[in-house]
Amino acid sequence: MVRDDANQQYAEACQAVANEYIERSTRFGVQDLAFKAVNARYLSFTIKVRHSLDVVSDAQDKPGLIKASEDGFLTRDWGWYQATVEEQAVTELQRPETREKLAHEVKTSRYAAISKRTCIRTHPRRLFHPYTCGTCHGSGEVTCHGCSGHGKVRCSGCGGTGDNICFSCGGSGRKSSTHQVRDSTGHYHSETRYHSCSSCRGGRVSCSGCGGRGQVTCRTCGGSGQVVCAACAGHGSMTKITETRTYTTPTFFGIYPKDKPSYLHDALSKLGFETLNEHGAVMFQRLERMDNECLIDFYFECTIPLCDLTVEVDGQTTQWVMLGRFPQIHDTGGILEVLLRNDQARLLSLGRSASRWLPWFHRKARPILKDVMASEVHQDIMAYQANGWAFSAIVEKVNRSVSEAYVQQITNGLLITNRMVSRWAMIKFILFVSIIAPAIFLATLMATERRRPYTMFASQEHLDIFTTQGWISYLTIGAVLAILAVLSVLINRWWHRRWLKKLAGNSS
């Protein structure tokens, strides 16, 4: 009796979800659907979680000589070190403590707490291997790359020449002075006299940065030609530290009774086997060890509510599937395709109509696109399609409420209509620019010539494109028109996107 009451409550919850789904996914005000049959029940099945163990030796190289800890092992023999690392990894898989640790972790944790590759054990003994740094060969220093070991670099002030142009005479090597002299007639006039520059020799002066040597001390190494080795931090030695870690990778399987519904596995996979404890009751049952293969199988008993609904809407009968503690829709039997078929037909007809070649095509497209984009499922389809989803994946994301053919047709119809509206908008902006371009041309030309309108054509020189002023004028006009063209394209795109958002009920 208790189970019958629970089934009835679950059936009512599924019907409420179906009503809410129709109202939310379409623009139609469907309040009540005609439920011809509602079969709510609890389905029990087994989940097998297989944990596969693998051991990884994680090694890190650290600078300097590091002493081994009390539980560590240190050796300078590289061959012995490698053999010890391998032996420790093999031994770790054979240790019964490793499997017991995994069994304890799974049984004492909530279901699917380990749902991806996870480290379950770190070996208590670390392995240390000190060795000479291969970069500096034990010296702790390497050749400076800035000066290639010379300790000197070319002076940036003079470019390595050792001298610079004399600023006093500008590199000419001489200076000029002007004097007032009186000629034979008694008149005074200016006379320029030249003499050698006293600040330089032939127009060049010694560089103050390098003292005329052309080179300066390298700042990176301080003139030594050597820098501290970055690999070993100047220690001249390194220490390889290896830790042995054991990982487990879970794999989930469903074991179903013979009378299971054909869609059950797909529905559970859609929910995710790792999250089934959120949709039903999952209890640990038993485990099986496979010692030779480093595998452990854990079995869980899962009970999950399930409901099959036969729904009639708009004269069409569809089969729905819901499951989970809080009903999750898996399949709606293409119900939205039935409700939205008129919108689909109008959109496809619009894309094939002759009106798409008319400038006012957007007026006819607006009410049709507004009705199409008012449905949430159409908005979802366009969003998934823009992100590169395949048609089959989109169908699953919208709970099989439409078919792949419907997704393809509605996508193509929206793209064609959107493309035609955008093209006509661009053409209108181009015509607008063409009309105002002559006025902008004249206004810009007058501004560059700085002449009054009635005198701007007084001289042919001002219109000659091969003159300096002509080049400046035409380049200025071209820049203004180019900026105007770019602004026109941006305004067109902004207007078109805003138009589409308003149709979808989002003006933000």
What is the percent of helical residues?
Answer: 25-40%
Mean pLDDT: 80
Order of helices and strands: HEEHHEEEEEEEEEEEHEEEEHHHHHHH
- Note the overall shape: flat
Low-pLDDT residue spans: 451-467
**What is the alpha-carbon Rg in Å?**
42 Å
Name the beta content range.
25-35%
Class from secondary-structure proportions? alpha+beta
What does the largest sheet look like?
A: 9 strands, mixed
Short key terms for the protein model shown above:
two-stranded antiparallel ribbon; alpha+beta; nine-stranded mixed β-sheet; 508 residues
Can you describe this structure?
Helix 7 packs across helix 10, helix 9 packs across helix 10 and helix 10 runs antiparallel to helix 11. The longest helix has 46 residues. This protein has eleven helices and 17 strands. Helices cover 38% and strands 27% of the residues. The radius of gyration is 42 Å and the shape is flat. About 3% of the residues have low confidence. Strands 1, 2, 3, 4, 13, 14, 15, 16 and 17 form a nine-stranded mixed β-sheet that branches. Strands 5-12 form a two-stranded antiparallel ribbon. The protein starts with a helix and ends in a 5-residue tail after the last helix.
Concise structural overview:
With 508 residues, this protein is of the alpha+beta class.
